[in-house]
Design a protein that fits this description.
heterodimer, A: 358 residues, mainly alpha, ABC transporter involved in vitamin B12 uptake, BtuC, two-stranded antiparallel sheet, 2 strands, globular, disordered C terminus, B: 519 residues, alpha/beta, Rossmann fold, 3 domains, six-stranded mixed sheet, disordered N terminus
Chain lengths: 358, 519
């Protein structure tokens, strides 16, 4: 058995590789559960199917998929242009801080304009935080992977300082959290009786707009050219700095929006941790969804399921919550492995001719 | 270690015999049953166009690649050459077309790396000095490679091979980067090597060289042997027929071009070098007028890349007036604004600069022609217009492609180059700058590109061609200038120039030029 280079990258494999990766993840997950002494099929059922058994389950699923999809779509824009923003977790956090700060400042106010203002603050907060790696990259050629990643920890510490210190709730019995936001700053429920809020409606809109930018606009063309072949971009006269700025600002803005929707939605206040790692999981969603908005929405749904499945498995099977990261890691691992098949095909024929081993 | 020359030439059996060599790549049979015999003391030419399978064949002999089928006989005995080290042990040395030298290390250090030297550096330096003195390959072992000329770098590669006392030396297109004078001294060395009984396998597509140097030639076409002959008894035309399969109509340049107003004026254009290994441009002045084709000759690495990036707008110039396009100071303008002034540009690298390999031809049209034919409106792409433009280029310039949706990578080098040249010409440029228009392009496409460039100039466009191929420049240009170490010689009419003169200029002898003008 050997790998043989394909003449052309296989388009079929582009689509099939994520499906292969998911299948391999299920198989490996089943083996893992079996090794822990569970019936693998029953355990996988508990993990992936049982959480969706009722309306609450489905609404929680969509609730968790919303930030993943929004962030991943923003990141994908950059990935297409070779801009590797790994700092969505920090941008999400700063978006939450900016939105939360605005909501607290407007604590006395009421009116339809409060919520849009709070969400806009979230977008700007995330975008401003993503501007830091953009400046460092365009001015000083500092690699944005490192700078944006390291800024994640800074953002989380800033949030912790705020909720432990200046923004701590006066009536919160010294818990590290702010006041609950007023109703004017909270996202209305989409389905009554669930936590799913109207923010979920942003996902199809953003997906459509980003799809149009990527596949129909000249700006999207420039991003793709610079991502594929930087020298061709400079021959054409496209500005790489513009692409860096654009994709970091949009990616940061969408991560900031996701952060704002978390604190104005299910959480309702600022707490030391506003995200269970959405900013990192979204990177997997962007890869799994092939940096295509529609693919990303599907990938976000799958990854959101791992969060629910982890909770369910913790309760029903008494396995640690780390099982979520195990499954997310396996998906990315198998995806990267399956991607080899896009450029290579597997040949099972034994070589008969002379030729020698390499 | 050193066997005497008499030993080497005494053997009557072929030094190297290949029988039925086959090498299959995905989608391409690069070698299809090739036979080849090289005798001791023979300089054997391996002749063929780009893509004929020459490089694959010699890589098999040098142990870099393994043949799928066929037999290799070394001095009469079947051998398996599993690695370059195995080839060296047999006595096969190779000088590659692209040098594998470390710029920041000295000559001796580079040689030590290549021959896996474990002794003292002083001993090696002495051996290098010995070998270079014996063959007249002047080299100072202590100099750094970055300070050497291209010809000297090639000598390092040759000395490195000779230290292993090879019985067969493979030379892959050794003259493509040399001046005519450097070529002469290389040939003297090669003749001395064959006189000692060593065999040389000499790969080239330059017919004149082969006729002066080689006693026997094997001609490849499309992965098969299309003929063997004594090149001294053939004419350049008959060799070309064996190589290409058809006779080619040479491009015809009208006797005297109707020259109009200046379209490109370079006025003491200078550019400081960005890295220690790039060349600074030093007060380059040149005028290209409507209706004429001006050529810039020169050995690679003398500032062509820097000049081209200054012309295209990829490198900006501090003094805007140093570059004037159609009278407008343009040194500070980027590529898109220069295109708006009517400049077209064909870069040296087709795949990866002139075109995005993974994108379709229709998408690649957008790269440089996006302002033409209303392809972009309101920030959105009108794909039907880009597709139509690509279709017109494919038709008008006879590009062999599956259609506008074919990805650029799927085209052969010649067809992609026709497409890129066509894409620029279809925008009706007032000035067209072309780098290496036919480098690595098959002869049929090269002739078509030459005809297109001449037709464009006849229609009134100013054309500037930067090329290392002197034959090409002499065939299509009206005037020719030479770049050497970042300085540009004054241009002279092609009809008044000789190859020797240009060769001297390429070697940096500008002084003679000035005195001969004064006389």
């Amino acid at each position: 058995m050997r790998l043989e280079a394909r003449l052309e990258p296989s388009r079929a494999m582009m689509v099939a590789a994520p499906l292969l990766a998911v299948a391999a993840t299920l198989a490996a997950g089943g083996l893992l559960f079996a090794a822990l002494g569970f019936d693998p099929l029953a355990a996988l059922f508990t993990f992936f199917v049982s959480p969706l058994g009722d309306l609450t389950g489905v609404s929680e699923w969509l609730l968790k998929a919303t930030p993943l999809a929004l962030i991943a779509i923003g990141l994908a824009l950059g990935f297409r242009g070779n801009v590797w923003n790994i700092g969505a977790e920090g941008q999400l956090t700063m978006g939450a801080v900016a939105a939360g700060g605005t909501a607290l400042a407007l604590y006395e106010a009421s009116g339809f304009w409060v919520l849009p203002l709070v969400l806009t603050a979230g977008v700007l907060g995330g975008a401003a935080y993503a501007a830091l790696p953009a400046v460092l990259r365009t001015r000083f050629h500092a690699n944005e992977i490192l700078t944006s990643l390291m800024l994640n920890y800074v953002a989380i510490l800033v949030l912790a300082w705020l909720v432990h210190g200046p923004w701590r709730s006066p009536e919160g019995y010294n818990f590290p959290e702010t006041r609950m936001f007023t109703d004017a700053a909270l996202l209305p429920a989409l389905i009554e009786g669930t936590r799913l809020h109207v923010g979920a409606l942003f996902v199809p809109v953003v997906a459509l707009v980003v799809w149009a930018v990527l596949s129909r606009s000249f700006l999207g063309f420039q991003i793709k050219v610079i991502g594929l072949t930087p020298a061709a971009g400079s021959y054409a006269g496209f500005s790489p700095n513009r692409v860096i700025w654009f994709s970091l600002l949009v990616g940061g803005g969408l991560a900031g929006l996701a952060g704002a929707m978390e604190v104005c939605g299910p959480i309702g206040q600022l707490v030391p941790s506003v995200s269970p790692g959405y900013g990192y999981t979204a990177i997997i969603a962007a890869f799994l969804g092939r940096s295509h908005p529609l693919g990303i929405v599907l990938a976000a749904l799958l990854l959101a399921l791992t969060y629910l499945g982890g909770d369910a498995a913790q309760i029903a099977l008494a396995v640690p919550l780390a099982v979520i990261q195990v499954f997310q890691g396996m998906i990315l691992f198998f995806l990267l492995a399956a991607d080899v098949l896009i450029r290579y095909r597997v040949r099972f024929s034994a070589r008969v001719q002379t030729g020698g081993t390499r | 270690m050193t066997s005497t020359p008499a030993d080497l030439s005494a053997s009557p059996t072929p030094r190297l015999a290949l029988r039925g060599i086959v090498k299959q790549y995905p989608g391409c049979r690069a070698n299809d049953g090739i036979d080849l015999v090289v005798m001791p003391g023979e300089c054997h030419a391996l002749l063929g166009e780009n893509g004929a399978g020459k490089s694959t064949l010699v890589k098999i002999v040098a142990g870099v690649l393994q043949a799928d089928e066929g037999e290799i006989l070394w001095e009469g005995a079947p051998v398996r050459i599993g690695s370059p080290a195995a080839a060296r042990t047999l006595g096969i040395g190779m000088v590659f077309q692209h040098f594998s030298l470390f710029d920041s290390m000295t000559v001796a250090e580079n040689v030590a790396l290549g021959v896996d030297w474990r002794g003292a550096m002083a001993d090696l330096s002495r051996r290098v000095a010995e070998v270079s003195a014996r063959y007249g390959l002047a080299l100072d072992p202590a100099r750094r490679v970055c300070d050497l000329s291209v010809g000297e770098r090639q000598r390092v590669e040759i000395v490195r091979s000779l230290l292993q006392d090879p019985k067969l030396l493979i030379m892959d297109e050794p003259t493509s980067v040399l001046t005519p004078q450097e070529i002469e001294s290389l040939f003297a060395v090669l003749r001395r090597l064959t006189a000692e009984g060593r065999s040389i396998l000499y790969i080239s597509h330059k017919l004149a060289e082969i006729r002066t140097l080689c006693e026997r030639a094997t001609v490849l076409r499309g992965g098969r042997v299309s003929g063997t002959c004594d090149p001294r008894e053939e004419t350049a035309a008959s060799l070309a027929r064996m190589m290409i399969g058809t006779d080619l109509a040479p491009p015809v340049r009208a006797a005297a071009p109707r020259v109009g107003e200046p379209r490109l004026v370079l006025d003491r254009l200078s550019l400081t070098s960005e890295t220690p290994f790039s060349t600074a441009l030093d007060a380059v002045s040149l005028t290209v007028s409507a209706g004429e084709i001006v050529g810039i000759a020169g050995v690679a690495g003398n500032g062509q890349a820097e000049l081209l990036s200054a012309l295209s707008g990829e490198a900006l110039v501090a003094v805007p007036e140093a570059i004037r396009i159609d009278g407008v100071a343009a040194g500070h303008l980027g590529p898109r604004r220069r295109r708006a002034l009517g400049m077209g540009f064909v870069p040296e690298e087709r795949l990866g600069r002139g075109a995005v390999p993974e994108m379709s031809l229709a998408d690649n049209v957008l790269l440089s022609a996006h302002r033409a034919a209303g392809m972009v409106r309101g920030g959105m792409i009108r794909f039907s217009r880009a597709k139509g433009f690509a279709e017109r280029v494919i038709d008008a310039f006879h590009v062999a492609a599956a259609g506008p949706r074919a990805v650029a990578r799927s085209l052969s080098g010649g067809n992609l180059q026709k497409f890129i040249v066509g894409r620029e010409i279809m925008q009706n440029p007032r000035l067209l700058v072309v780098a290496q228009p036919t480098w690595g392009v098959d002869a049929g496409s090269a002739a078509a590109i030459h005809r297109d460039l001449i037709a464009l100039a006849d229609a009134g466009t100013a054309v500037l061609v930067v090329s290392q191929d002197l034959d090409e420049l002499f065939a299509i240009c009206d005037r020719i200038a030479v770049i050497c170490q970042g300085r540009l010689s004054p241009s002279r009419p092609v009809r008044a120039a000789t190859v020797e003169e240009i060769g001297l200029l390429m070697g940096g002898v500008f002084h003679l030029e000035e005195t001969s003008h004064a006389s």
